[in-house]
Amino acid sequence: TKMLTDNGVNVVFSAGNTGPGQHTLNPYSIAPWVIGVGATDSKGRLASFSSRGDFASALFRPTLVAPGVGVVSVRGSGIVNVTGAEGIANGDLQRLSSSELPYYTTASGTSFSAPQVAGTIALMLEANPSLTPADVRDILQATATPLAPYYQHEVGAGMLNAAGFR
Question: Which among 23, 97, 114, 126 would be 20 to 30 A from 140, CA to CA?
C-alpha cells in the first residue's frame, strides 16, 4: 500500500466489524498513508460493530467514519451470496420493492462505508486532479463532521462530509 500511495493511488480500507472493544481495527487500516473507514448508522451514531483503535494512540484509530448500517447495495448472485447480512426479513422487505429484490439487498458493515469514501475521493480528484493521496487524506479529515460524544480512537476525525470539499 505504501508503494501504491507513493505512486499517487489513494488506498481505502474498511476499519473492520469486530467492535466495540479497543484494538479491534483491521491492521491494514492503520497505516498512516491509507484511509481507514469505520461505520455509523443513519442517525450518525457509531455502529456497535465498527472496530475501534486504542484510546491513547495517535496511530490506532480509523481515519473517519461513514454510513454503514442498513445500506442498500447490489445483490450478489449464486447460492452462497443471495442476500446481504441484514437478510430479507430484517431489511430488504421494508426498504425495497418486489421488483428491486432480485437485484438489491440491505446490508451493514464497514465494507459498505469504505466505498462511500472512495466515491468521495473520486469526486475530489475530478474537481482537482493534482491532489496527492496525502492531500486527500488531510482534506477528508479537515472537513469531517465531529461526532460528539465519541473519541478519536472510535471515529477518527468524524463523519464523512462530501460537501465539505470545495
Answer: 23
Determine the Cα angle at 78 with ends 68 and 93, to 5°: 50
C-alpha cell at 103: 437485484
User: Dihedral angle at the C-alpha atoms of 12, 1, 19, 106, nearest 10 degrees?
Assistant: 40
∠ CA 143-147-148, rounded to 5°: 135
Q: In what order do the strands lie in the sheet with 35-40?
A: 12-14, 35-40, 64-67
- Going by their DSSP bridges, the two strands 104-107 and 35-40 should be labelled as unpaired
Does pLDDT of 83 surpass 60?
A: no
> 82-89, long-range: CB within 8 Å, 24+ apart, which pairs?
84/108, 85/109
Question: Cell numbers of 34, please?
Answer: 491509507
Per-residue pLDDT tens over the stretch 12-48: 999 999 999 999 999 999 999 999 999 999 999 999 9
